[in-house]
């Protein structure tokens, strides 16, 4: 399957945004129905598990969970990265996504969600519900592990409840 990465570009004259193809590459998986498949893609192609700063990516999918495109949403610092719901859904709407997944790394190497991760997941999930775009998962990548908010042991977090 060919996978495309995009940048969101602002036309300086019209002040309208549009997607610009950044890179296209072939990858052996044609559907991403589980978090492990995305984890492997992000490790192999983007080396997200070895980055010294936090990065956030958006994966946009159609109804069949075929990947429409990948976007780098944020390049943060050693322990934080901003995720703006407007920026996330601007990209998702322009590419025609019916569902999205947010993926980011933890430079500590540990895939343990922070309170900010929990709050961000909740905000993005609520915004998506208003727009009819499902947040299919929120994935944290560590050195040799990942955490999927959708996985069974994290259902409370995915539903937007805070840990006790």
Describe the structure.
By secondary structure, this protein is of the alpha/beta class. It has one domain (2-158): Cytidine Deaminase, domain 2, CATH 3.40.140.10. 27% of the residues lie in helices and 32% in strands. The protein is built from 4 helices and 7 strands. It has helices spanning 35-46, 85-95, 115-131, 155-158; strands spanning 2-10, 17-26, 55-61, 67-75, 99-105, 134-141, 146-148. The chain has a 7-stranded mixed sheet, with helices on both faces. The radius of gyration is 15 Å and the shape is globular. The N and C termini lie far apart (42 Å). The relative contact order is 0.16. Residues 157-164 have low confidence and may be disordered.
The CATH superfamily name is Cytidine Deaminase, domain 2
By CATH reckoning, the class would read Alpha Beta
Q: How many structural domains are formed by the residues?
A: 1
Q: Outline the low-pLDDT stretches.
A: 157-164
**Ends apart, CA distance between termini:** 42 Å
Portion in strands: 25-35%
Based on secondary structure, the structural category is alpha/beta
Write down the Rg: 15 Å
Give me the strand/helix succession.
Answer: EEHEEHEHEEH
The tally of beta strands, per DSSP, is 7
Strand order of the largest sheet: 2-1-4-3-5-6-7
